[in-house]
Amino acid sequence: MMNEMEQKFVEKVDTYYDDMVETLKSMVNIDSGEDNPEGIEQVAHIIGDFLKNIHFQVEYLEYPGICTHVKATRRSANPDAKEVMIIGHMDTVFPKGTAAERPFTIEGEKAYGPGVLDMKSGITIALYALKAMDELDLYHNHVTVMFAGDEEPGHPRTDAKALFKAEAKNKNAVFNMETGADNGSVVVGRKAIFYPIIDVEGIAAHSGKDPQKGASAILELMKKIEDCYAFAAADDDITFNCGIIKGGIVANGIPAHAQMQGDFRWSKVESGPKIIEAMKEICAKKYDPRTTTTYVMDPNRGFTFPLEPDEKVMKLFDVVHAQGEKIGVDIQPIRVGAGADSNATYEAGAPSVCAMGGRGELNHSAQEYLWLYSLTERAKILGLSVMAVK
User: Fold this and answer.
1) Buried/exposed code over 176-211 (b: 16+ C-beta within 10 A; e: otherwise)
2) What is the DSSP string of 82-93?
3) Rounded distance, CA 356 to CA 284, Å?
4) Which residues 6+ apart lie within 8 Å of 131 measured at CB?
5) The domain containing residue 235 runs over which residues?
6) Residue 90: which of 129, 50, 41 has the closest Cα?
7) Closest CA relative to residue 111, chosen from 209, 28, 216, 37
8) Are residues 214 and 165 in the same domain?
9) pLDDT digits (tens, 9 = 90+) for 205-258
């Protein structure tokens, strides 16, 4: 059962539906992929201007030619206030021009467009939950908002992950506005990710005239890739995928260089060091002594600490579940194989629940869709959850 103020909050959110759709439309129709930092900046200022109007202190963290992050804070006058954080990202996976080719559209009860689900709906939901709290004077907890501009590629050129970890320290709750599932479940477990790059240098030679003088970088790399797959197959917590292979310049030449870009994923904290040790061994081993192998495991690319559904996380999930019940929604917890910035906030020690954004499916595709009714539904759940953190 809701108390009187919670009921007023829920009713207030319902009045925002049309405005929520318009705000979502304005952001979806701005290309904000990695190749358009200007578009990311535009989205950042839409968010920042909105938050300024509801009494947040707003800061833009600018990385010229790369992206912009937004950080905003609002302090409560309540002496017993808890520290709550809302996070997400403004970038999409779609290249410049996509918004013009297939702009925001509504078909029946669904909305379409680049990033409509992942995750401009989540941003919209957060903004209007916070707006309703402002209008009804419901800021009993301190709130920090942080939206990154380069999450999709894994923050390769900014310090976003370090910023998330620093801000999450001593937070009582973190809500990530990543995309919710079609069935309304929220994420309590996410895998960690390493994106290893292996480079092999061999010796070039003509494959017909004097092949014995060559040392194939591709052959050496192939064997190391097989070792990576074998290592992962022997551990029930670790998966590996070789996503990109490059090497050679002509078919009749023994290749002097080859490169692999891969993907390790795992769900248990202790698996990370095992992967690092295995990569050292795999890359140190020489099938052909004339080759040289180097590798990179860049901690700034990927999400290198899993989100585990431990007691603190599940306690926060219980808060979210209880708020869903108040509006007749049965929210279930799930684990997923993808990483997100909630991995970093969890690493910092903050209880974190993910996928609080809109309901839908088919992220990262032209078919990506959002159930429009979930804009107000999820805003109610988020706002009630922020207020329920004690």
Assistant:
1) bbbbbbeebbbbbbbbbbbbbebbbbbebbeeeeee
2) -EEEEEEE---S
3) 43
4) 16, 50, 54
5) 196-296
6) 41
7) 28
8) no
9) 999 999 999 999 999 999 999 999 999 999 999 999 999 999 999 999 999 999
The pLDDT of residue 218 is 98
Decide if pLDDT at 300 tops 80: no
- The DSSP 8-state label assigned to residue 184 in this structure reads -
Residue 299 has pLDDT above 90, yes or no: no
Q: Are 152 and 34 in contact (CB under 8 A)?
A: yes
- C-alpha–C-alpha distance, residues 60 and 45, integer Å: 8
Q: Same structural domain for residues 283 and 181?
A: no
Q: Look at residue 298 and tell me whether its pLDDT is greater than 90.
A: no
Answer whether 0.85 is exceeded by the pTM: yes
The answer to whether residues 11 and 155 belong to one domain is yes
Average pLDDT of the segment spanning 316-335: 98
Inter-residue contact 215 to 208 (CB < 8 Å): no
**Per-residue model confidence as pLDDT tens digits over 102-156:** 999 999 999 999 999 999 999 999 999 999 999 999 999 999 999 999 999 989 8
Final residue before a domain boundary, out of 273, 296, 319: 296
Q: SS3 for 217?
A: helix
Q: What is the arrangement of strands in the sheet containing 360-361, beginning at the earlier edge strand?
A: 105-107, 110-112, 369-371, 360-361
List helix spans (H) across the chain: 4-14, 17-28, 37-53, 98-101, 120-135, 160-168, 217-233, 271-284, 311-326, 342-347, 374-388
Phi, psi angle pair for 253, to nearest 5°: -125, 135
pLDDT at 334 over 90: yes
User: Are residue 333 and residue 211 in the same domain, yes or no?
Assistant: no
**86 vs 72: CA distance, rounded Å:** 10
Q: Which helix (H) or strand (E) holds 144?
A: strand 142-148
User: Which pLDDT band, with edges at 50, 70 and 90, does 303 fall under?
Assistant: confident
| Residue 282 CB-half CA count within 13 A | 26
Do 160 and 43 share a structural domain? yes
Domain containing 166 — which CATH number? Answer: 3.40.630.10
Give, in degrees to the nearest 5, the angle at Cα 379 between 375 and 384: 155
Residue 13 is predicted with a pLDDT of 98
- Per-residue pLDDT, 302: 78
